[in-house]
Amino acid sequence: MDVDPATAYRVDVHNVVHETIEGEVIVIHLLNGSYYSLGGGGPEIWERLLEGATASQIAAGIPNGGADEAEVLGKVREFLADLAQDGLIVPDPGANGAGSPSRSAGTWVPPVFERYTDMKDYFLLDPIHEVDATGWPNRQAG
Amino acid sequence: MALPAAAGTVAPVQHQLDGLTEAADAAASACGGWRERTVRIAGEPFILRFAGTHLLDALFPSFAHLAAGGAAAGAASVKVFESTVSGVARPHLPWSEIPDAPGEPIVRLDEGDHQGVADSRSTIVAMADLTRRRAVMHVPDVAGVASAEMGARLRPPLLLLLGALGPLPLHAAAVGAGERGALLAGMSGAGKSTLSVACALTGMSFCGDDYVVLEDSKGAPIVHALNSTVRLSLRSAGLLGLELPAAAFAPEVQEGDFADPKGQFDIDELAPGAMRSRLRLRAVVVPRRDGVAGKARPIGGAAALRALAPSTVLQSPGRRPYAMRTLGSLVRALPCFELATGGDPRAAATALSDLLEGLD
Asked: How much is the pLDDT for B190?
């Protein structure tokens, strides 16, 4: 999956919940039971995605400590591709929350994306189907 | 009187709940009336109404430790009925039907104030009206439900109602050394039950092996008990040195680790006096089955949150962001540890007791 550096993305708050603790973001996907740890520079990027930001805006705003800008943008795009592939973020062409950020001071730390599927396996073994009043297979709206 | 659905249409969810309530009332009439008990969970009063003495005797004992006397103004209520003895069938509830679904699913209805859960393994169905704080639960055949499953049967409607009352049900066990409690976090199969029973057998207190309720308070975190039963596998009973009748264990149909036969036992039978209705938490502990039994090491709050949050959050319909924030606050407030249980859960329990007593 390729991420257009000019397309804004936003955290899919309808289908995920998240909590940042000790420099790590824990994200749970509510529909499939997978959960994630975002480490390294991931929380910094995640913070910008909460406002709706493009890969270019993120790469221009996070600490890079003088690292090669193309390399930073490439890593950000890879990270966003992982998040988008798993449905944690969605394109949001109307977002303009990030604007033109000023770069934060600090060292460039590449983001780390870790996926845990043990709960997903549990889900598949013992799935919880959420339905509306008319029943299976009609999922509840929203 | 509920309005019947027109042919070819589906009754609105409120009418489905009304129909279920009417069936429960009819079952109670057929079985000598309601048998009532009041319990208090995390400070919240519940009136449990059983359609007949046979249901009271079968379902209430594992919640008897929560019995509360006196008036229960504003209490939430749960009506429980069955079909075999009463002769009253459960009305059709379209949301609870899953034709040709894979596995053995749990169905959850989440329509704002109306919540429901149907478990195809037990065929138990519960529906709740959160605004009116009322729930109804149907057990098809109380005699046909294996004793291994009976102890926790009242949990579904209570968990539904608790979802609207503030206290947060946690998918976790809780044990204590003196006044110092530990929340045992981990998904099904992580070893929570085995370790919590080992703790009870070695003199610690016990507050729950699978679900506890976190009090909605600003002070030190406190968890409250639900049922007093524990669910043990035959293998775990062997590791614990318990000699329990083989007939008490029923094989499970799933593959892999879940194939180990399971039985349900009241903690008071295994470790008399160990049950506590509440514990003040001093630590979060994540058991792991491998490693040297009893070896504990500090872990970060993020690692503890990964063990604690997914199953609790996913089972908190209607307030999952709140559940995630609450659990985040919990692991920030408490020291977190990983504890290896290895093949010796009693050794791990002793280590956990020492760990708790050594905390400042």
From this structure: 78
Write out pLDDT tens, residues B100-144.
555 556 777 888 888 888 887 778 899 999 999 999 999 988 776
Please name the residue that has the structure tokens 């503890």: B304
- Whether B306 and chain A come into contact, CB under 8 Å, resolves to yes
| Look-up of token digits 């040195």 | B241
Q: Looking at this protein, which amino acid is placed at residue B63?
A: F
DSSP class of residue B305? Answer: H
The distance of B313 to chain A (nearest Cα, Å) reads 8
DSSP letter, residue B210: S
Residue with tokens 């020291």: B335
Q: Give the one of B99, B111, B331 whose C-beta lies nearest to A140's C-beta.
A: B111
The pLDDT assigned to B298 comes to: 97
Distances (CA, A) of B95 to A125, B42, B85: 21, 30, 25
B288 touches chain A (CB under 8 A): no
Contacts of B19 by beta carbon, 8 Å cutoff, 6+ apart: B2, B11, B91
Interface of B with A in 215-234 (CB under 8 A): none
Nearest CA in chain A to B327: A19
Size of interface A-B (CB pairs under 8 A): 125
What do you get for the CA distance between the two ends of chain A, in Å? 26
- Better pLDDT: B154 or A86: A86
The residue of chain A with its CA nearest to that of B96 is: A135
